C-alpha cells in the first residue's frame, strides 16, 4: 500500500513539474507500439492505452500528434502506449467493439475499459496518473477479446479480409473479370454449404438415430405395484379363459358340421343307386 502511494505521489510530482517546466523537461522519449493479431495478448499483462484508428480517418489524423506526445510520458507513468490500424489488422479490431474511429481502450491486468474523455495529451496523462480509469465500468467478459463471441467475430473479420484479398488477386493478377470472380465465390459457397449440410446430417444421424434403429419400447417395463400386477394377472387369466371357451365352441361346431355332412352323404347314396338302376 505504501509503495503504491509513493509511486502515485511521484507520478503526480512528475506531472506537475513537467507541466510547469515545459513538455520536454522531464518526459522521456517513448514511441507508440503497433499491435498485430500475433502480439495482442501483450495487452493482458500490465497497463496499456490502445488507439484503434484508420489512415483515411480525419479525426484519427488529428489525434496522432497528441497521441505521440502522450507516448513520451509512457515510461514515467509506467503505461504502454499502442495503436492498431484496423485496415491492416481486421482480426484484432474484431476482438473489440469498435463503433467509431478513433476508439481508445484502457487495459489493466486483463480488464478493458473504453476511454470516453477529451483527446489531448494532458487529459490522457490525468486519466492515468489520477487513476480516473477506476470510475469507468469495465466491459463485460462476454465482450472481452478472449471470449468465444469476440474470437468468433475476429475469425469472421479475418475471413472477410481473406475473401477480399482473393478477389483482388483474381481480378488484378490473374485477369479474371469481376463477374467471374463472383461466380467462383458463389460456386465455392454452394459447395461448402453442401459439405457442411452432409456433415450436419451425419452428426444428426449419429446423435439421434432413426426409429428403425431404436430399441422397441415395452409398456410394462417400469416396476408395477402389487395391486396393479394382481389386476393385470387377473385380466390375462380371464382373457385366456375366454379364448379357451371360444376354441371349445369352435370344436363343437366343427363336430356338428362333420356329422351333418356325413348324414347328408348317407342320404344321397340310395338316391344315386336308384338313379343308376333306372338307367340300366
Automatic annotation (TrEMBL):
<dbReference type="GO" id="GO:0005576">
    <property type="term" value="C:extracellular region"/>
</dbReference>
<keyword id="KW-0564">Palmitate</keyword>
<dbReference type="GO" id="GO:0031966">
    <property type="term" value="C:mitochondrial membrane"/>
</dbReference>
<keyword id="KW-0249">Electron transport</keyword>
<keyword id="KW-0472">Membrane</keyword>
<keyword id="KW-0813">Transport</keyword>
<feature type="transmembrane region" description="Helical">
    <location>
        <begin position="184"/>
        <end position="204"/>
    </location>
</feature>
<keyword id="KW-0449">Lipoprotein</keyword>
<feature type="domain" description="Thioredoxin">
    <location>
        <begin position="21"/>
        <end position="133"/>
    </location>
</feature>
<dbReference type="InterPro" id="IPR052454">
    <property type="entry name" value="TMX_domain-containing"/>
</dbReference>
<dbReference type="InterPro" id="IPR017937">
    <property type="entry name" value="Thioredoxin_CS"/>
</dbReference>
<keyword id="KW-0676">Redox-active center</keyword>
<dbReference type="InterPro" id="IPR036249">
    <property type="entry name" value="Thioredoxin-like_sf"/>
</dbReference>
<keyword id="KW-1015">Disulfide bond</keyword>
<keyword id="KW-0732">Signal</keyword>
<feature type="region of interest" description="Disordered">
    <location>
        <begin position="231"/>
        <end position="280"/>
    </location>
</feature>
<dbReference type="GO" id="GO:0005789">
    <property type="term" value="C:endoplasmic reticulum membrane"/>
</dbReference>
<keyword id="KW-1133">Transmembrane helix</keyword>
<feature type="transmembrane region" description="Helical">
    <location>
        <begin position="142"/>
        <end position="163"/>
    </location>
</feature>
<dbReference type="GO" id="GO:0090331">
    <property type="term" value="P:negative regulation of platelet aggregation"/>
</dbReference>
<keyword id="KW-0964">Secreted</keyword>
<feature type="signal peptide">
    <location>
        <begin position="1"/>
        <end position="27"/>
    </location>
</feature>
<comment type="subunit">
    <text>Interacts with ATP2A2.</text>
</comment>
<dbReference type="GO" id="GO:0003756">
    <property type="term" value="F:protein disulfide isomerase activity"/>
</dbReference>
<dbReference type="GO" id="GO:0015036">
    <property type="term" value="F:disulfide oxidoreductase activity"/>
</dbReference>
<keyword id="KW-0496">Mitochondrion</keyword>
<protein>
    <recommendedName>
        <fullName>Thioredoxin-related transmembrane protein 1</fullName>
    </recommendedName>
</protein>
<keyword id="KW-0812">Transmembrane</keyword>
<dbReference type="Pfam" id="PF00085">
    <property type="entry name" value="Thioredoxin"/>
</dbReference>
<keyword id="KW-0413">Isomerase</keyword>
<keyword id="KW-0597">Phosphoprotein</keyword>
<feature type="compositionally biased region" description="Acidic residues">
    <location>
        <begin position="237"/>
        <end position="252"/>
    </location>
</feature>
<dbReference type="InterPro" id="IPR013766">
    <property type="entry name" value="Thioredoxin_domain"/>
</dbReference>
<keyword id="KW-0256">Endoplasmic reticulum</keyword>
Amino acid at each position: 500500500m505504501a509503495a503504491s502511494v509513493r509511486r502515485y505521489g511521484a507520478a503526480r510530482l512528475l506531472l506537475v513539474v513537467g507541466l510547469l517546466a515545459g513538455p520536454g523537461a522531464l518526459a522521456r522519449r517513448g514511441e507508440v507500439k503497433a499491435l498485430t493479431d500475433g502480439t495482442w495478448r501483450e495487452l493482458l499483462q500490465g497497463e496499456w492505452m490502445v488507439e484503434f484508428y484508420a489512415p483515411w480517418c480525419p479525426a484519427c489524423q488529428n489525434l496522432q500528434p497528441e497521441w505521440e506526445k502522450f507516448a513520451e510520458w509512457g515510461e514515467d507513468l509506467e503505461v504502454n502506449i499502442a495503436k492498431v490500424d484496423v485496415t491492416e489488422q481486421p482480426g484484432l479490431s474484431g476482438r473489440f467493439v469498435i463503433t467509431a474511429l478513433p476508439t481508445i481502450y484502457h487495459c489493466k491486468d486483463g480488464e478493458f475499459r473504453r476511454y470516453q474523455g477529451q483527446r489531448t495529451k494532458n487529459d490522457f496523462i490525468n486519466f492515468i496518473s489520477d487513476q480516473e480509469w477506476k470510475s469507468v465500468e469495465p466491459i463485460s467478459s462476454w465482450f472481452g477479446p478472449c471470449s468465444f463471441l469476440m474470437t468468433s467475430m475476429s475469425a469472421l473479420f479475418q475471413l472477410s479480409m481473406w475473401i477480399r484479398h482473393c478477389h483482388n488477386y483474381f481480378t488484378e493478377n490473374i485477369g479474371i473479370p469481376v463477374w467471374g470472380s463472383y461466380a467462383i465465390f458463389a460456386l465455392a459457397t454452394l459447395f461448402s454449404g453442401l459439405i457442411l449440410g452432409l456433415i450436419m446430417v451425419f452428426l444428426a444421424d449419429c446423435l439421434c438415430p432413426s426409429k428403425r434403429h431404436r430399441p422397441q419400447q415395452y409398456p410394462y417395463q417400469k416396476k408395477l405395484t402389487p395391486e396393479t400386477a394382481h389386476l393385470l394377472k387377473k385380466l390375462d387369466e380371464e382373457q385366456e379363459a375366454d379364448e379357451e371357451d371360444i376354441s371349445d365352441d369352435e370344436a363343437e361346431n366343427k363336430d356338428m358340421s362333420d356329422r351333418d355332412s356325413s348324414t347328408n352323404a348317407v342320404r344321397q347314396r340310395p338316391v344315386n343307386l336308384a338313379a343308376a338302376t333306372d338307367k340300366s
